[in-house]
Each structure stands twice: as structure tokens, then as C-alpha cells.
Amino acid sequence: MTIPGRALAEAPIVIGKPANSEALVAALRDRILGSDSATLALESWCAEHRLAADPHLVALRLPGPDKSLSAAQRARLAIGPDEPVRYRRVRLVCGEHVMSEADNWYVPARLTPEMNAVLDGTRTPFGRVVRPLAPVRRTVEVRARPPGTEPEDPLFEVDAVLSTGAGQPFCEVVETYLGSALPTAMR
Predict the structure, then answer these.
(1) Which residues contact 72 (CB under 8 A, 6 or more apart)?
(2) For the whole model, what pTM was predicted?
(3) Closest listed residue to residue 105, CA positions, set 124, 85, 123
(4) Closest to 58 measured CA to CA, from 124, 119, 129
(5) Does 87 have pLDDT greater than 60?
(6) CA 121, CA 154: separation in Å to the nearest integer?
(7) pLDDT at 139 over 60
(8) Residue among 101, 104, 94 nearest 182 (CA)
């Protein structure tokens, strides 16, 4: 069954890994696609698979230049060419496991001043910061990645738009989920 606003993709074929890794990748992908918060989905995944004593995520900012929004992204966010947008590139980490890397563009005028301050000055994940907005996540695209053998190898990518519970879009993310999100025995 397809959930409105959710793009479901077939599980990638993984050769040379334990059979359970395919099922785990599919389960992780389905959990992300079925949730309105990737942060909450990853934290429950971390807890369930005991990836860390404390399953709460930390957002580690990655250095580098800001990436501009495309015209299509601005249209999905319902903003004009001059509307200010902030950009964050982060790694979401659970214990020692890098779960994902994400490019995040958000409209600061659609967040509270307190939310903007937390995003600017802390390692709090975006999903936890914006939780009071009752975000609704709409998947734009899912891309399977070729199977890899290293923890830093990508498993799949998800592009999504977050809107408030009232329907106003405020963020677009491009997330790359990594092999280190899987329990060690399954990589």
C-alpha cells in the first residue's frame, strides 16, 4: 500500500553481504519514509538496535560552502527568488555511528527566533528543534545506492520537504543514509 506523500522504493540488491543486511536496509528505509521526523525514526532505530548507550542523535556541522537552492526547490518551499534561506550540512551521529549526512535548506522566517538560535548555536538535530511545528514530511525522491562494504558507504538517499501541521513548507532536505546505521554484524 502506498501512503500519500510517500515514495516507496524497492530494496537495493546487496551482493556478498549477509541476507539480513538487505532486510535491515529495507526496514531502515521504510522507517524513514513512514515517519514525519527522520530524527525520531533514527533515534528509535538506534535504541532498537542498541547502537549506543544513549540513542539520542547529535548533529555535527560539516564545513564547506553553502549550496544554493534550485528553482524547483524554491517552488516546493513556496518562496520567491529573494526570500532568505539558511543552509546546514550535518552528520547525524548516534554514539559512534554516523547514521546519515544531510543538506538542509530552511526558511528562517518560518521558524521561531528561539528555533533559529538553537540551530545556529547547538548540535541539536533539526527534527528535534522544529518538533513544536508538528512537521509533516513529504518525500520528493528516493534513490538506491550501489551496495558498499564500508560503514561510510551510502545505503540510499531521500529528498523530502517538511511543512508545518498547517501545511506551510519550511524546509527541504537531501539525506544520505550510511552503512554505519546498520548493526555491526550486518555490514
Answers:
(1) none
(2) 0.85
(3) 85
(4) 124
(5) yes
(6) 28
(7) yes
(8) 94
- Work out the pLDDT band at 147, boundaries 50, 70, 90: confident
The string of DSSP letters for the chain reads -PPTT----PPPP--SS-HHHHHHHHHHHHHHHT-S-HHHHHHHHHHHTT--SS---EEEEPPSPPPPPPHHHHHHTT--TTS--EEEEEEEEETTEEEEEEEEEE-GGGS-HHHHHHHHHS---HHHHTGGG--EEEEEEEEE----SSTTSEEEEEEEEEE-TTS-EEEEEEEEEEGGGS-GGG-
Cα angle value 141/98/114 (rounded, 5°): 75
- Report the residue count for the chain: 187
Q: What angle do CA 87, 181, 159 make, to 5 degrees?
A: 40
Segment 146-170 mean pLDDT = 92
Residue that is written with C-alpha cell 529528498 in the block:
159
**Residue 49: is its pLDDT beyond 70?**
yes
Which of 9-13, 64-68, 158-162 bottoms out in mean pLDDT, i.e. has the lowest?
Answer: 9-13
